[in-house]
Write a structure and sequence with these properties.
The complex is a heterodimer of chains A (about 250) and B (about 425). Chain A is an alpha/beta fold and about 250 residues long. Chain A is built from 9 helices and 8 strands. Chain A has 3 domains: about 1-125, no CATH class; about 130-200, no CATH class; about 205-250, no CATH class. Helices cover about 45% and strands about 15% of the residues of chain A. The longest helix of chain A has 23 residues, at about 110-130. Chain B is an alpha/beta fold and about 425 residues long. Chain B folds into 2 domains: about 5-215, Alpha-Beta Barrel (TIM Barrel); about 305-415, no CATH class. Chain B has helices at about 5-15, 85-100, 115-130, 150-160, 170-175, 185-200, 225-240, 265-280, 285-290, 305-310, 325, 335-345, 350-355, 360-365, 380-390, 405-415, and strands at about 45, 50-55, 55-60, 105-110, 140, 160-165, 215-220, 245-250, 315-320, 370. The longest helix of chain B is centred in the middle third of the chain and has 20 residues, at about 185-200. The chains are: A alpha/beta (about 250), B alpha/beta (about 425). At the A-B interface, α5, β4, α6, α7 and α8 of A face α1, β1, β2, α2 and α12 of B.
Chain lengths: ~250, ~425
């Protein structure tokens, strides 16, 4: 079993693709972490090389399948451990079928796996367009914290920037400590790394939170209780950041 | 700002309105405005009953001068009453919207004094939101039946979607249970709004009701059959080009009433009707096909399976050649499945393994399809029925013939199918 280890960047991944073809060595898994090695495993450390990566991306531009570069960038936002392998397999399928648009060949395992990976990300983006909750800070900007499965902060920014075009806001991915900021004109993404982010909320916030909780409770029809359905749509792992679910977490 | 108590009362009175979708409009934000609408709609939360919260669903007032028997807010019902001013509603919408709790407003009202006075107040709220607060989010407005045409048409210029509730599936039931409402009062505004919308679209003017009209009716409060409801639904889609018809299964609201059932009608009937609704809108079915001599939908199968079982001459369907609209009629193949199949077969012949990979529900589909001419299903009608039957544990129950077996099983034994 062949394993490639690389630095986790897009350029690094394309270098892996190049090396796989050049050395005729097709990896079973690709990862950016140190892995436990089995007795029969061959592990290769791939050195990121811009030249090699450029040849791969040029090649992809000449393939019949369109938008691969864009899709790969999107897929790299995934929080799944096997994402590099899934992307590699898809890129390989695209190159192997240079004269064919393979993007909709759902009977092909690597195409289907890649399309599922993309769907997980875009679905989560769609979900968080709804599940993000802002709170007003004392300084007048709006702050939201959330912890998504995939790294989607930057993908959410255009949506909120056009919706709240004259409202300064910050979206904070607590899991990765990444902040998406918008000041009323421009967006920017900041990686806070290990720094602590502190926000002072305005005094009125607690009142709005209670109003929202009241609404959430009142609009429910008790006779039609369907807890399973609710959890399907609103997974428990997202509850931590939703004010309407705070009452329940407290009562656990 | 509105207080907790009134918010609770006005929400609890509004919650029986089913529609909460925020789709169909792509209203853009204005320069110094707040909000926009997204074509596909966005759900912001989900309540314990599994329904989505997308809009702030609220009444202006629940003080009603009507006495509709099925309604919580009827005049004779002993419930807490409250009202809110248009400005209070606007403030609430703006502050919820800024916190991304809602996608917009779903505004309705009990008929206080006269239909015109109520409609005027609703219109006032909507115009305030759009003009004063520069709000560009989604607004769904309930129309008040028998209100003045001018008021209703003006509202259509400001909101994304409007709906008049049919309430009950027949004029007779409406007269019996909602004596103050009339068929004409409900249907005529739907009619002239549909005409206006059609004209607007032909002029490429998309600001009049961008998300169209919907309606809602209560199921199980009156004796109409599924057949009547389905034909009515199809008629409404054709005549008024509605976006949706909603069904709400009747929930008893306070006190016993001789005219109404005392226990809630199960959700299964409502579920089956929605399945039919989907078949009508997306799967190319017609009401006449779905219904048979037996006016009511079977509870055990979903309507698509029911149709498939009744039409053995249509099956099996060849996966590699059948057109998409034929694939859609196969139990176990839905919209996404058909999309995947149609695309994937361009690259080569598909077999059963490919279908399984694409997550087609083969358990249901196997008896209705062939792949490259191969058929792996069974011709045994009873076995086919059993795989499609709704069971609580989702497992197939094959019963031994006993004195108490139902007719279907007895018949099939006589014909040697078991």
């Amino acid at each position: 079993m062949i394993t490639f280890i690389f630095d986790g960047t897009k350029i690094g991944l394309f270098t892996c693709v190049f090396d796989a073809y050049y050395e005729r060595r097709i990896p079973k898994t690709i990862t950016d972490k140190q892995v436990q090695v089995g007795f029969y495993d061959n592990v290769y450390q791939i050195e990121t090389d811009t030249q090699k990566a450029k040849r791969v991306s040029d090649c992809l531009k000449n393939c019949k399948t369109i938008g691969v570069l864009k899709d790969v960038s999107l897929a790299l936002k995934s929080g799944r451990d096997d994402k590099f392998t899934v992307i590699f397999n898809y890129v390989k399928t695209v190159i192997d079928n240079k004269n064919l648009d393979v993007s909709k060949n759902f009977a092909n395992e690597s195409v289907l796996a890649f399309s599922d990976l993309i769907k997980q990300i875009t679905y989560e983006v769609h979900r968080f367009k709804g599940f993000i909750r802002f709170e007003e800070s004392v300084d007048g900007y709006y702050y939201a914290h959330f912890s998504p499965d995939n790294d989607i902060t930057w993908l959410l920014m255009p949506h909120f920037a056009s919706r709240f075009s004259n409202q300064a806001f910050i979206i904070h991915d607590v899991k990765r400590n990444v902040l998406g900021m918008y000041d009323g004109y421009n967006s920017a993404q900041v990686n806070a790394e290990d720094r602590q982010v502190t926000v002072y909320l305005s005094d009125d916030e607690i009142n709005f939170k209670k109003l929202w909780q009241t609404y959430y409770k009142s609009v429910n029809i008790k006779e039609r209780k369907n807890h399973r359905l609710m959890k399907n749509f609103l997974p428990v792992r997202y509850w931590e950041h939703l004010p309407e679910k705070q009452v329940e977490i407290a009562s656990f | 700002m509105i207080d907790f108590e009134r918010l609770r009362i006005l929400t609890e009175s509004a919650k029986y309105d089913v529609s909460c979708s925020s789709s169909g409009s792509s209203r853009r934000n204005t320069k110094r405005g707040l909000g926009n609408a997204e074509m596909g709609g966005i759900c912001h939360s989900f309540t314990e009953d599994g329904r989505c919260i997308s809009l702030l669903k609220i009444l202006l007032t629940n003080k009603c001068s009507y006495d509709c028997q099925y309604c919580v807010n009827r005049r004779s019902n002993d419930v807490e009453r409250a009202e809110a001013t248009p400005e209070e509603i606007c403030e609430l919408v703006m502050s919820f919207y800024r916190r991304n709790m809602i996608e917009g407003l779903f505004l309705s009202s009990a008929v206080d004094q006269s239909p015109d006075a109520t409609m005027e107040k609703l219109l006032d709220t909507v115009i305030r939101l759009r003009k004063l607060h520069r709000f560009n989010g989604y607004i769904h407005l309930k129309g008040i039946p028998s209100a003045d045409k001018k008021l209703i048409m003006r509202a259509g210029e400001f909101v994304d979607r409007m709906s008049f509730n049919i309430e009950l599936p027949s004029e007779r039931s409406l007269k019996l249970l909602a004596p103050q409402k009339s068929k004409v009062g409900i249907l005529s505004p739907m009619g002239y709004m549909a005409t206006e919308k059609k004209q607007a679209l032909s002029l490429k003017y998309n600001k009049f009701l961008p998300a169209g009209q919907t309606t809602q009716m209560i199921v199980g409060a009156s004796p109409e059959s599924d057949g009547q409801i389905i034909r009515l639904t199809q008629g409404l889609y054709k005549k008024f080009a509605l976006k949706r018809v909603y069904f709400s299964s009747y929930v008893p609201t306070n006190e016993k009433n001789a005219l109404l059932p005392t226990s809630p009608v199960g959700i299964l009937r409502e579920h089956r009707l929605y399945q039919v609704d989907w078949l009508l809108r997306f799967y190319g079915f017609k009401a006449e096909e779905i219904l048979d001599e037996n006016e009511n939908l079977p509870e055990g199968y979903d309507p698509k399976c029911h149709w498939a079982l009744k039409h053995p001459e249509f099956f099996p369907v060849e996966i590699n050649t059948a057109p998409a609209e034929v694939l859609l009629r196969v139990p176990g193949i839905g919209f996404k499945g058909a999309y995947k199949i149609v695309n994937a077969r361009r690259y080569g012949k598909l077999d059963f393994l490919d279908l399984a990979k694409m997550r087609i529900v083969l358990k249901r589909a196997i008896n209705f399809i062939t792949c490259n001419g191969k058929f792996f299903g069974t011709e045994n009608q009873l076995a086919v029925k059993n795989t499609l039957l709704l069971t609580s544990t989702d497992s197939v129950i094959l019963s031994q013939l006993s004195m108490f077996s139902n007719d279907e099983i007895r018949q099939s034994v006589l014909q040697g199918e078991i």
